[in-house]
Fold:
Amino acid sequence: MDPPAALAEMRASGHPFAGDMADVIEAVIADRIEADERPHVDAIEARRAELEASEQDITYFDFGAATRDASQTPDEMYAGVERSRTVGHLCRRTSKPYRSAVLLHKLLRKTKPQSCLELGTCLGISASYQAAALELNGGGRLITMEGAEPVAALAQQTVDQLGHDRVTIVVGRFQDTLDGTLETHSPFDYAFVDGHHEGAATVDYCGRIFPKLTDTAVVVMDDIRWSDSMLDSWNEMKQHENVELSVDLADIGILLVSKAPQPARHYVIS
Structure:
């Protein structure tokens, strides 16, 4: 459905979260950056430009899906693929683009979560956008997880440079660190699942996260059309018995997860 019609339908539904999401999406489409958000956005984008211009070489292990064809076995993904590239190439290829990062920022500004989880720190751009929202809200913390230690070190430089003291970076494979992170820091009222990029693993991570959420929480799934398996994972999770509302934004999917859900509502904005 085209955005104006979909946003009108979401507002007409009377569901508070649907209305909030319509406001968020409309602000992102219009690139509406509020006065108090502008200094944060400008600082983060300056850091992005710095990273994109970097010719520094970095070698790290990628523990997710290396290709879209789902040809790797779970053991091969766990072992990882060694990659060597410049920081600039890594930033351009894997950091969340401006509009997607602003969407996360606006979503957190609207929903005001207190305990946030991110799977897939990369170089800290999306973490910084989310942390900036928490700072402007005046509360909340972000636990962000990154599998590759050299990449996590650069992400730490990003959040330190930008002064985001609400961020804690957990380093290690999600398979090894997620359960401990959930046990230590839950319950979460927000989670952004952006890493691994393989459908079965994504469903597994969501399956671990859902029981550690508050009574009502927001879960964002990234790159839901990166591969057939990722689209399958989105379609499976949006039908989960605890999902009350879903919004399909083509590349990003947003779920409202509730322990006492109302009849599910699903929106697609193309």
About this structure: The chain is about 45% helix and 25% strand. The first helix runs from residue 3 to 12. The chain has a mean pLDDT of 95.
